[in-house]
Protein 1
Amino acid sequence: MTRLARHTAALVRCARCPRLVAYRESCEGTKRAFAGETYWARPVPGFGDPAARVVLVGLAPAAHGANRTGRMFTGDGTDGMGSSDFLMRALHATGFANLPTSKSADDGLALTDLWMTASVRCAPPDNKPTPDEIAACADWLAREIELLPNVRVVVALGKLAFDRVLALFAARGATIPRPRTRFGHGAEVDLGAAFPRVVASYHPSRQNTQTRKLSPGMLADVFRRAREIGLTPAATASSPSRRAPRPPPPSAPSRGR
Ligand code: SF4
């Protein structure tokens, strides 16, 4: 078993946050559109290309999306307007995804040069994890990024993910530039050659997409920029993460509990 696969196997057994454990397991059977489905109802592992140069960090699984399907940004909504589909259209348009939709763990979606993960791995009530829950989950994200050897850029979806990613790299010795970069769509933070560049994006939540605060073109522009950064030759080869061995893909999470 690879280190990334071992990480995934440990993550999906995590039960550190009693409130989130209770909530993730209570969602099944509460939404008519998914009546009769067995929910994943566990922590949701990262998904994508283990050789990725681009890592996408979201907030947390949706109660009836990733918490149901067991795959990041998958299946949240039935009208094609959920975060998953909005995001996947942008990833497909920019060549990171082979499909413009993300419906289920067995829909054939494959990502190239991109890994999707989240700041918190269990669905929180009202999409709002508490500060203690965010802190409790921090090392899962840190470890996962550490196990992706080629990462050059991290795209943070939303302010919470942006703050979390900067805190993660600061804890690993990165100097956060002063004055501190304010969160905003397209904002970038250069942490130096030893760390990935951080690019901020508005989160593709319905609240943002239906009010046109975030348009499809705006989201696609962020991924075009991420690709550009990812393709730029590294200024140095001294990054610890770049020296790490490249793990093969993790096995897909099994459905059901
Ligand atoms: Fe574990 Fe993170 Fe889920 Fe809390 S949110 S139970 S730390 S996986």
Protein 2
Amino acid sequence: MLKIEGLRAEVEGKEILKGIDLEVPAGEIHAIMGPNGSGKSTLSYVLAGREGYEITGGAVSFHGQDLLAMEPEERAAAGLFLAFQYPVELPGVGNANFLRTALNAIRRSKGEPELDAMQFLKVARARMKALSMPEDMLKRGVNVGFSGGEKKRNEVLQMALLNPGMAILDETDSGLDIDALKIVADGVNAMRGPAFSSLVITHYQRLLDYIVPDKVHVLMGGRIVQTGGPELAHQLEASGYGSVQAA
Ligand code: ADP
Ligand code: MG
Ligand code: MG
């Protein structure tokens, strides 16, 4: 599904990613853990195609396609979902229109017919009921006045509607409480299946109590320095990142 080889990237002339190798097969959920400043968010931004990150080496393929050669919209159309792609509030942009536009862009690229407002509402309402989301969240501006938990629910709704092949979640700095963690975890766990992969990026082990990963990778100083099973997350929680030998 996702294959990263020798990936190097710079921000403002400073090398942050120093040769990342990582493969996430279809159907697997991998976690990336690491101390602050290790490059976790940089990796997610590079995979998203955010501006300002210069790729200086390596390759990334997604479903066999050269991800780094694709525009951010093309990455989304190919089935890559970034959980924090739209963290901002958009006053004046109705949440229903926003979600429908995102969904229709992907449907168009797949050659599927677009949904009109009524068709979309039907699909969205069914999903929202499953997520215990009040219906008025569709009428409000995107994330405007949403609580932290409501923003999480909205992201999970967006993910469920877009049905991506791969979701990348960077939770590191979002200061989620337990309720919000559970919303995200339930959303990801509901997507689990042979055609879904996820890269869960987190500073804390807590989230991984709810989303049990197939593999855990430790990122330090811009490199993956250790890979293990779910038990590695518990080990790190107990002994800290100091116990991991930086490569
Ligand atoms: P993490 O998410 O693991 O905490 P980041 O990817 O946010 O780490 O940051 C990795 C390193 O890159 C840090 O040393 C940070 O200061 C630096 N960095 C990140 N973004 C920028 C930027 N826009 N300009 C300069 N340095 C940056
Ligand atoms: Mg950080
Ligand atoms: Mg970060």
